[in-house]
Each structure stands twice: as structure tokens, then as C-alpha cells.
């Protein structure tokens, strides 16, 4: 691949239809991340515009807590975005290491400021989660991955077209229902992130992704441990299920953050300055303990992670992970009863979520898996699985039928990519998988014919070479 002005070092991740590369911008000698979209594999021109819109959106924001965009361009069949390369890891890593409450509050304040800047431009991120929050080496948190951001004044149809709906562990109730969204959707997702920063756990944890989505819609706001009770009103205001019960905007959120910070500081000051015999051992011990806590919090706040996280994970190789047999086994009624953690959704009883809730959750998960190219893999967490489960409940569901057809179209895109790279076996497998799902798919049929013609031509050429025929 040749992008004028850039020297590409290595691929660092792949997601959907784009690949991320570590590169050097030759004119300035600085390391950058190049996000590249191969237009030859794109059947829908909306995806190209969406890719370019990502660069325009982020470049327009110009905020210290939002990733910096350097350049947007076209090189041959490739669209690219050149962006800031940061080396402080992501929030997901830091949560695993453990964060103090004050560090979590400091991160929250900076992220809320970044979102306020985005919302001021009528831009909703729609996928706030720890993996989309990176850090500079100095510890500054950055909001990244605006690839599915919605500009409210220009894109009122993003939800209805099923382009993207967020991440299950951080999805707002209105996102899960496919309703219109505004900045309060990002506040809800950021509230989920705050809960995870404070506790190390996600707000709702179940073996079934469907149950997680339903809990985001129906369950009460989770309760923090007693020692974190100071943060509960903040979490309640961010994660309220009714949109109107949440903070109205990031300004209101930032006011609440500052009020909480003031209360916590006042408590510390009162502890340090409490009247006591300055010679009493107990008083001296309390002062030493408070100072020790303050030093620890300061050290935690300025700690940085020195390793780069290849955040854009390459999707599983569909040719290995999804065989023809595995596709057929996911059809309605074919699940093995002995499989662990099996999700039963059809015929939900009165004790569980109602039929409509389950159907909406399945449709949401199916569309999201489709967007992430989780077509028939991993088992029981892919687009084919969710759409078929939806058809078990409602055999005439148009959304599920359309979704399954879109899976075949995605396999056609993958087949075209591998065919262009000369990967014949992968191409054949993608075509077979797609045709098992939709036998009448014309694109796949055409690709199959083309592949057959190339194979026959190659065979005849081999025979001519063998016998020395011209």
C-alpha cells in the first residue's frame, strides 16, 4: 500500500471495513495512525461518506480531550485519515490495574469536557466505552473512534438504517430501542464507564448479551459500595433510565462533578484541621494517614501506562471460525441442548422479560453484530444467530429477514476483498457461506461463476504448460 507522504510501518488493527496502520508522516517525521478504507470493497457509498465524515467531525472539534486529526485524503482506491498516535494505552487497561476514586473523578471531568465540545457541534459519539478512551503519555484521556458518531443536524436516519447502535455493556435505553438520541445518550454511557472505573465491574453482568441489553432498559441504576456512596447521586443522574431524569447536558454534569469534588476536599480539610491535642499520638497518626492518602492519590493520578494497546482488534478469520456446518447449526431449532450458557429467548415466561422486549433486544444485537462483521462467529454471539432467534419468535419478522440477507451481502464483500488479493480458498469459503444463507444472492452467484472461470482457465493453462502447448 502506498499513501503519498507517509511511510507505513505495520498494521496495528482492523475493524469492519477499515485497517489501522502505524506510519510516519515524512514531511514532519512524526508517528501517526493511518486509518485506511479500501473503496473497492465498499458496495454502499454511504460507508465512504461516513468514513470521510469521521475525519471531518473530529478535526472540527479541536479539543484537548479528543483525538487529533492531522489529514484526510484519497490515494488511489484508498481513503485515509491520519490521526494522533498516542502511547499511554486505553482506559480498559487502567481499569484492570485499578483506579482510585479521585482519579476516576478526574478522568470523568476531562471526558465530560470533551463530550461537551462534541455536543456543542451537534455531534453525539454514541459509543463511549473504556476501549474508546485513550491516553497520552502525560496521562491526558482522549475520546476516540468517532466512526459511528452522529451529527444530529445532518443524519436523522442513522438509527433506522441500522448502521450502528453502540456497545451492549454501555448502551442507553433509547439506543437499545432504536429511538432518537441526543447528548444524554453519551452521558448515560459515560455513567456506565464511571461505575466501572469506581468498582472495576460493569454495571450489569450476565452470561447472555440479550439480558445485559434488557437490564440497561429495565433494571434500577446499580448501587455503589458503601465506601463510594458519595458518587451515587452522580451515577444516578447519569444512568437514569428516563432520558428526562438524567443530567440535561454536560454543563449540568460538570457542575455536579465540581460539587462532589468540593465536598470531598472539604471533608479532607476538616479531617486535617480538626481540633486536637497536637501532641496526642492519635492526632499525629491521623495527619500522617491523611497525608499518605493524598500522596497515594497524587501518584495514582499521574501514573501512565507505557505500552501501546492495539485497540482495533482484527476480526476473527471467518474462513476458519465459521465453517458451512457451523452456519447450518445456528439455524432455528438446531442448538445443542448440552451447550453451556445457552440463551433461551423464544417463549419467554411471565417471570422474564416480555416478548416485545426480547424481540427488540435481538434486533439490536443482530444489527450491531452485522456492523461489526460478526456474521456467523463467535458461537451464539453473531448476526446470524440473533436474527434466527428473532425468527423463532416471529417467523415473518421483516427486520430479521432483511438482516439475514445483509449477512450474505457482507460475505460477498469479504469474497471480493480476498479475490482481489488472490486468496482463492478464502474467496471460495466466503461464497459458500453466503450462498448457504441466501442461495439466490446474485452478487455471490456472479462471484462463484467468476471464480469457476478463473479456476478452469488456470487448469487449462497448467495443461498447456505440462504438454508444451502454445
In words, what does this structure look like?
With 470 residues, the protein is an alpha+beta fold. It has three domains: 6-84, Phosphorylase Kinase, domain 1 (2-Layer Sandwich); 91-301, Transferase(Phosphotransferase) domain 1 (Transferase(Phosphotransferase), domain 1), CATH 1.10.510.10; 318-461, no CATH class. Helices cover 49% and strands 11% of the residues. It has 16 helices and nine strands. It has helices at 45-61, 91-97, 101-120, 173-176, 183-199, 209-218, 232-239, 250-273, 281-301, 318-321, 324-329, 355-371, 383-393, 398-420, 424-437, 442-467, and strands at 6-15, 18-25, 30-38, 69-75, 78-84, 123-124, 133-135, 141-143, 150-151. Strands 1-2-3-5-4 form a five-stranded antiparallel sheet, covered by helices on one side. The protein has a two-stranded antiparallel sheet with strand order 6-9. A two-stranded antiparallel sheet has the order 7-8. A hairpin with a 2-residue loop joins strand 4 and strand 5 (78-84). Helix 6 (209-218) packs across helix 12 and helix 14 (398-420) runs antiparallel to helix 15. The radius of gyration is 26 Å and the shape is globular. Keywords: ATP-binding, Kinase, Membrane, Nucleotide-binding, Serine/threonine-protein kinase, Transferase, Transmembrane, Transmembrane helix. ATP binds at residue 35.
